[in-house]
């Protein structure tokens, strides 16, 4: 029988929520890595037992954890207990993310734009997002702050920057958003191993068609009022991008303001905010079986990061945008002032598509009927940073 | 044997209860002790010294014999009491955050 495993990253540890295909009775395990920020966890499609986690701390820096048994046990890749001792500064290290400043790769980019418009050194802070390869459990991508993309091909034991992203020429114009300057979205094209999308706050969306060697900004059609030139090539505060696997050329974006759609792999975008009560928000996702069915969680504004009137509502469009309906059954109808962060929504692939999201108030909500009705799986976790789901057979 | 006291999260990360005891070859300097610590517990690499710079992480401090060693040269010899194991080298996280 099918089951689901929901991976929840929080401000104070990781939690794993599991249920059978009915998705009514849930088991909660955790906290893993108690007291540490878990920015993101994601499982491999090629090997569902393989899960990568970004464990981070302002005191102790960045760690990468890996499970090979579906989250039952964890270790830093390459550093299992009992393995031989290694030099203090080995070539391989699972938590070493060094920017490529070599002349060999041609683009030793060292500064980006700071909040005040001056140039500021690139400084590694943390991994925001891990994205396992669709076909190889040992290949995984990491989107990091300050914005860059890294790749590991040895199960997370070592990381190399795909420096063409930072180095394509507009890097000095990128600037941090309120949450920092990170690569938060990584989308892999299931039909084209050479194509990949990333999104950066606040730089915009980018696409590679050569496996990550070179990148191009794909922001035509975006307009951002906070920028001196609102339709500039880069500088947009993209919050999240989603796509349906069967239609990788169709992208949906929740921008700082505006919900956007592209039908040509990001070459151009049009606004599809339609009748949303506010088009500010962070998450966006696509139904597993209906490529034109979208979900967002409208947030009041960039100054007030909570739902309008204290009513937590998911909005669904069955028309690929423009026309939206409020989904409220089972969600708080009053006094709710939480946020839903950019990586905190996911869908499963069961026949009746499940939708999940987590809040900064520590609730994780689930819908087993495509959003018609909702129930909290847990109510009192630490602030939720990310939610991913694995559909298991 | 040199004794090192680690903060709670690093003890957990390394699976350590209590102080660490390390045999340090050659002069007992801060960097020699940290090198030995990271060889014994490789999961601690990068958590005390930044990988990119090799420098102490900003929110960690080193104390030895009631003296602040946070800003001392890494190759300076630690006090004889630490080298002899009578006093621990303390690695302490800043009291900040939530």
Describe this structure in words.
The complex is a heterodimer of chains A (393) and B (98). With 393 residues, chain A is mainly β. Chain A has a single domain, classed as YVTN repeat-like/Quinoprotein amine dehydrogenase (Methylamine Dehydrogenase, Chain H), CATH 2.130.10.10. Chain A is built from no helices and 29 strands. A 4-stranded antiparallel sheet of chain A has the order 3-2-1-29, with no helix packed on it. The N and C termini of chain A lie close together (6 Å). Chain B is of the alpha+beta class. Chain B has one domain: Beta-grasp domain (Ubiquitin-like (UB roll), Roll). Chain B has a 5-stranded mixed sheet, covered by helices on one side. In chain B, 33% of the residues are buried. Classes of the chains: A mainly beta (393), B alpha+beta (98). The interface between A and B is medium-sized, with 27 and 28 residues.
CATH architecture of chain B: Roll
Can you tell me the CATH class of chain B? Alpha Beta
- Record the strand order, biggest sheet of chain B: 2-1-5-3-4
Derived from helix and strand composition plus strand pairing, the structural class of chain A reads mainly beta
Largest sheet of chain A: 4 strands, antiparallel
Shape annotation of chain A: globular
Count of helical stretches of chain B: 3
Order of helices and strands of chain B: EHEHEEHE
CATH topology of chain A: Methylamine Dehydrogenase, Chain H
Please provide the count of β strands of chain A.
29
Strand content of chain A: 35-45%
Spans of at least 5 consecutive residues with low confidence of chain A:
none
Please, how many domains of chain B?
Answer: 1
**Termini gap of chain B:** 35 Å
Strand sequence of the main sheet of chain A, in spatial order?
Answer: 3-2-1-29
In DSSP terms (H or I, runs of 4 or more residues), the helix count of chain A works out at: 0
At CATH level 3, the topology of chain B is: Ubiquitin-like (UB roll)
